[in-house]
Amino acid sequence: MAAPTNLVVKWGGQQYNIKNLQENCTIADLKLAIEKETNVLSERQKLLGLKYKGKPPSDDILLSDLKLKPGSKIMMMGTREEEIADANEAPSDTVEVVDDFDIEDEEVLVENREEFLAKVGRRVKDLKVDILNEPRPGKKLLVLDVDYTLFDHKSTAESGYELMRPYLHEFLTSAYENYDIVIWSATSMKWIQAKMQELGITRNTNYKLTFMLDSSAMITVHTPKYGVVQVKPLGVIWGKFEQYSSRNTIMFDDVRRNFLMNPNNGLKIRPFKQAHFNRDKDKELLYLTKYLRDIAAHDDFTQLDHRRWERYKPSKKLKAAVLSPGDNGDEGDAADV
After folding, report:
1. Coil, helix or strand for 11?
2. Do 31 and 136 belong to one domain?
3. H or E element that contains 144
4. pTM score, whole prediction
5. Helix or strand or coil: residue 107?
6. How far is it between the farthest Cα atoms of the chain?
7. Which of 1, 20, 131, 285 has its CA 20 to 30 A from that of 255?
């Protein structure tokens, strides 16, 4: 099969069209073509989502052997030489721009609208969920966004480690003691899987993911103020899995509008951006590790004000009821934080 004549490379929040690739082009040739478009040296590029016989292809593998379709998208990690030098200097502009809406009034107007609940019902009926690890009896549910929550997806880097939010693996290890963990990102499953692999999440032995959801599990809703927006309705999960409900589910996302259908179950995490400047001082997951432990024995999460999570103090009764570290029903020691 002939190699595609063009591919699309996603890098640093932009897309680059790589054209005129011939049948005998190798991965090395592709990297040179990408270098011309992005100025990222070939040796600094890491291409995600490409597989040859189940493994990332080496530079001498022909593109035709990968059986890619014309216009296929590839995610790249890599850094320009000048940006490597810039990463050692403090940014001059520290203004934080948050992609979000002031949705407090919209929540009341959206949460129980019949037409939106009908959309959730259709998702429950039609959505296929691939179970990675079976739900564990008695565990609560933690649903996590990816981009800007666990991973800085727009900064450039040569490895997932450079863009990974600090304390990520310690956070997931601790959370796994009391929660089943689900990943839900507003992207395609292909990129979610690539990111989870690059971050070392799917192969970690201290915790396990129950399943992952992509944009196909989301629905659109109409708000009077902001028009049509996409949201992540937790009712899709609750309809698929009876053991999870509004009482035992919490979701972290850096965009509050994703909580429109379930405002009492969402916690807006501070976005993790400019990883090279902030990874030494970002402690959001460290503090949220404690919060998840403190609320683990609570009977009804909807009674908690997750917007004030930093001020939460559990009662002595709840403290005594929280599961002790390591009591997760699985092999392996949980790291303490």
Report:
1. strand
2. no
3. strand 140-144
4. 0.71
5. helix
6. 68
7. 131
Q: Residue 88 falls within a domain, yes or no?
A: no
Cβ-based neighbours of 50, under 8 Å, separated by 6 or more:
27, 56, 57, 66, 74
pLDDT in tens, 129-164: 999 999 999 999 999 999 999 999 887 766 777 889
Lookup: tokens for 84: 């490597």
CATH of the domain at 64: 3.10.20.90
Is the domain of 154 the same as that of 69?
no
Q: Token pair of 271, please?
A: 């976005």
- Give the chain's domain count: 2
Type of residue at 40:
V
Instruction: Please report, for residues 11, 98, 106, 119, 259, the alpha-carbon distance to residue 101 in angstroms, rounded to integers and kept in the order given.
Output: 26, 9, 10, 22, 11
- Structural domain harbouring 137: 104-321
| Tens digit of each residue's pLDDT (9 = 90 or more) over 96-111 | 434 454 555 555 456 6
Euclidean distance between CA atoms 149 and 164, whole angstroms = 9
Helix residue ranges per DSSP H, the chain: 27-38, 81-86, 104-110, 114-126, 160-163, 168-175, 189-198, 235-240, 275-278, 284-295, 316-321
Rounded to 5 degrees, φ, ψ at 7 are -135, 160
Residue 78 half-sphere exposure toward CB, CA atoms < 13 A: 23
Indicate the residue among 78, 96, 126 that finishes a domain: 78
Q: What is the amino acid identity at position 249?
A: T
Helix (H, G, I), strand (E, B) or coil at 291: helix
Six token digits for residue 183: 């990943």
Q: Are 160 and 209 in contact (CB under 8 A)?
A: no
